[in-house]
Predict the structure of FAD dependent oxidoreductase.
Amino acid sequence: MQHYPIIIIGAGLAGVNAAYTLQAQGHRVLLIDKARGTGGRASSKRLQCDDEHSVGFDMGLSAFEANSAQWQARLATLQKNEQIDLWFQRDDHDFYCGRGRNSVVTRALTENCDFLLSTRVLSLASSVNGGWQLSLENTEGKKTDVSASHVIITAPAQQASAILPNEFAKIKSALTSLSCHPSFVTLVATNKKISSSDAIMKLDDNALHSIAFEHCKPQRDSAGHSLLKLQATTEFSLTHLDDDKAKVGEKLIQAAEAVLGPLRPIAQHTHRWLYSQYADGIGQELIDRDIRLSSGYITLRPDLLIASDYAYKAYTEQQPQALRVSDAESACLSGMAAAEVILESHLESA
């Protein structure tokens, strides 16, 4: 059985930032994710416009912003390495995008990691000799077991609950109960020339929350097309959660056309983010179950931690003096904090 010092389950923003923090100090890390690539809600997608051209979209997070010193420092490093560019400024805040696509950021942060992608964690169990044993299955149905001295789980709350052993029944129940809103996103490529004074247009619409003008991002090859990301409202997404995605996309395009005029898409794609944004009040939900958080992560055992945006969000609700940041930055800070705990445990045992 292959053994790793540290395994991180989930290669979204929390997972990749935990991995970067650990590998920067010389620790070997294995990242496991059921998706085909890194990024989670910062992932990207290409659409084929014609026989010769395809164009890239940021399917989840539109831009990176930083309010904390830790995330500001990490973004500064990425900018110095020409992996991100300043996209726009609003209310004295800088907003960045990945050079070429936002998934460049997560790839840069995991450059020296080991990966098992397109792989699900079937079970997690305490090892007789200490640490953890994980049973895995890839998309081809091949099963394998690996072991680790430390595990950080960064999957969405409901998925994390399914992974945890029954000895953590209280936290499993708490994670299952956390309310998380879905969201639909429709990507549109059109030959129509569209310009806007706003990089992201916020709308007062029942269906459409915002329009991101992807072709306006620096260092992006749009092949001469206008590229739009249409973000649905929470209410619309809940109402149409089980509807056909193509029909949902048409509704969002119609809502955008009410603002921008006829679009006549040459390529389009609709994606449903099932776990998009955690509802307010999850901090109280965990308090009600006597689960309190330290610095935005959950400690189950010294060698088993949970890091994610919901952990940091719950922490800020429990600690009013804590810094309030975006969901994306919450995930980053939670991953960094969990990694620091493992680093401290290594120093204490050295």
